[in-house]
Amino acid sequence: MSPDEIFANIREVLEEALGVDEDEVTSEAKLVSDLGAESIDFLDIQFRLEKTFSTDGHSFKIEQGELFPENLMDNAEWVQDDKFTDAGMTMLRERMPHLNLEAFESDRSLAGVADLITVHSLVLFVQGKLNNEATPA
Question: I need a surface site. Which of 27, 49, 74, 96 has the fewest CB within 10 A?
């Protein structure tokens, strides 16, 4: 599936899940600040992505915490004083390679994590997951 096809499917998912217009769902759009997603919406988006990208022969399954960061405050090694530590940044890079952390490196605020999740990061996530699942082990 091409990135453009993935984007088109993700745009439909976000239009349905968030009630936004097609022209609002741009590649750069941030799910929370631009499209109005709330924490409850992330479960719906995850469910819709699984449904959209599953085929008759293969289930597209997203593990808990794989797409959207969860329980970050539970680990003092990752977050201190509402900012990500070096260990926290390493964890984000390893667990969420679909996020662009370049600009976030100087801020590192826990509140800023929500703005890392863009439509483009969803495309990268789905593309990577589809490519990994298509590769035989």
Answer: 74
